[in-house]
Amino acid sequence: MSGSYVGAAFRRPGRKASHGFTLIELLVVMSLLVILASIGLMTYSTSIRSGKEAVLKTDLFQMREAIDQHYADKSKYPLTLQDLVSAGYLRKIPEDPFTGSAETWQTVMSEPDPNNPTAEPGISDVKSGSEEIALDGTKYNEW
């Protein structure tokens, strides 16, 4: 038996052998490619967001640490974030990774100190200016 005879045995009578793909086969392959691409895109966007969250956590930690050091050294909180830069506690005010600006940080003013009523209230905490929801379901401006 020759190879063409075996192929001919499985062909329907009156039909030529097809050497291409059917429309259904192409649609199945395209559907699989779209599904794989969408999974990859979701994973990529989640990893980008996770990276920004890590940067935000680091920036908040460093600014809060600088505020605490300023208070420990001078017995008062800084009046502005720029005071931390002027005093050498920070090189510069970092950009909020979600707003893209160093001007959008939300500052929390300190309560009046009952032990030192003449002290001016200053910045005791800093938060993100973003209203977006984090991967853990909380808002970035609540961190």
What does this structure look like?
- By secondary structure, this protein is mainly alpha-helical.
- It has one domain (23-142).
- 46% of the residues lie in helices and 6% in strands.
- It is built from 3 helices and 2 strands; from the N terminus they run H-H-H-E-E.
- The protein has helices spanning 3-10, 23-74, 81-86; strands at residues 106-109, 123-127.
- A two-stranded antiparallel sheet has the order 1-2.
- The protein is rod-shaped and about 105 Å long.
- The N and C termini lie far apart (77 Å).
Short structural summary:
The chain has one domain (23-142). The chain has three helices and two strands; from the N terminus they run αααββ. The protein has 143 residues and is mainly alpha-helical.
Give a topology summary:
Elements: H1 3-10, H2 23-74, H3 81-86, E1 106-109, E2 123-127
Antiparallel strand pairs: 1-2
